[in-house]
Specification:
Elements: H1 21-29, H2 55-60, H3 70-87, H4 93-102, H5 113-119, H6 128-144, H7 152-162, H8 174-185, H9 190-199, H10 204-215, H11 222-238
Helix pairs in contact: 3-4, 3-8, 4-7, 4-8, 6-7, 10-11
The chain binds fe (ii) ion (2 copies).
């Protein structure tokens, strides 16, 4: 059951950036949406498959994990990223995972008092603080990756994904799409529902209704759709959202 009278978040506008040559190429290469998976899709609860590796990178960004629940958000997002890479083996796995690990580190370098007040209210998709955390995230990537042996080209590919991951409405590559999807998938897990409903100041039942109505349709890949649907059904049953509303 979903409530039809909830206020809606401002809709993503896919026409913004759609004329970028990278968006056009990606749309031509992956015309069927959601993008069908070619590998296995794991729809079990995400805690069954934690992510692996990248210990040095995790160590390097430890200070950045202390802001905005990044020490919960980032590992869960990366666990979803691994599943999406299994479902889309054509994607550059290293690029997806490194971009996913780093994508929100910029939150640690913006005015913390504005994260909730601007980033989770009104037109949060276009809040200045969201652009700032993307720019700062690129700065973190350029600071930590070279000393871990990553090439300049690789670092810039990572930054291409971090830059706009929240504020740009279209994906520019398969890797970009997978990072965007795993970042949204965390919202469907229990931990994401707990944190995000609190950040948005919303009852859990309203929040899960809006996930179903507004965020599920934004997912780009079929694998993410299936994972999100399974997570949402589990969370709604567990949290008794049909009764507690
Ligand atoms: Fe973000
Ligand atoms: Fe994120």
């Amino acid at each position: 059951m979903t409530r039809s009278n909830l206020p809606a978040w401002e809709q993503a506008d896919p026409s913004v950036h759609a004329s970028d040559p990278r968006a056009i190429t990606f749309a031509e290469d992956f015309g069927i949406r959601p993008i069908p998976a070619v590998g296995p899709i794991d729809t079990t609860a995400i805690c069954a498959t934690p992510s692996n590796g990248f210990e040095q990178l995790w160590k390097a960004i430890e200070p950045e994990t202390r802001t905005r629940a990044n020490d919960i958000h980032l590992p869960i997002v990366v666990a979803y990223a691994e599943r999406l890479c299994d479902a889309y083996p054509l994607a550059d796995r290293e690029l997806v995972l490194v971009a996913a690990i780093l994508h929100d580190t910029g939150w640690a370098h913006v005015d913390e008092s504005r994260i909730i007040s601007e980033g989770f209210s009104g037109n949060w998709r276009k809040a200045a603080i969201r652009f700032e955390h993307e720019t700062e995230g690129c700065t973190v990537a350029r600071r930590v990756l070279p000393s871990l042996g990553y090439t300049v080209d690789f670092v810039e590919h990572v930054c291409d994904i971090i830059d706009g991951h929240d504020t740009r409405q279209v994906a520019y590559s398969l890797e970009d799409a997978l990072v965007r999807d795993c970042d949204r998938l965390w919202r469907f897990d229990r931990a994401g529902i707990t944190a995000s409903s609190s950040w948005f100041g919303m009852p859990v039942s309203d929040y899960v209704d809006r996930l179903h109505r507004e965020i599920l349709p934004e997912l780009i890949t079929e694998a993410a759709h299936q994972m999100a649907t399974a997570d949402l059904n589990r969370a709604k049953a567990l949290l008794r959202t049909d009764a507690i509303r």
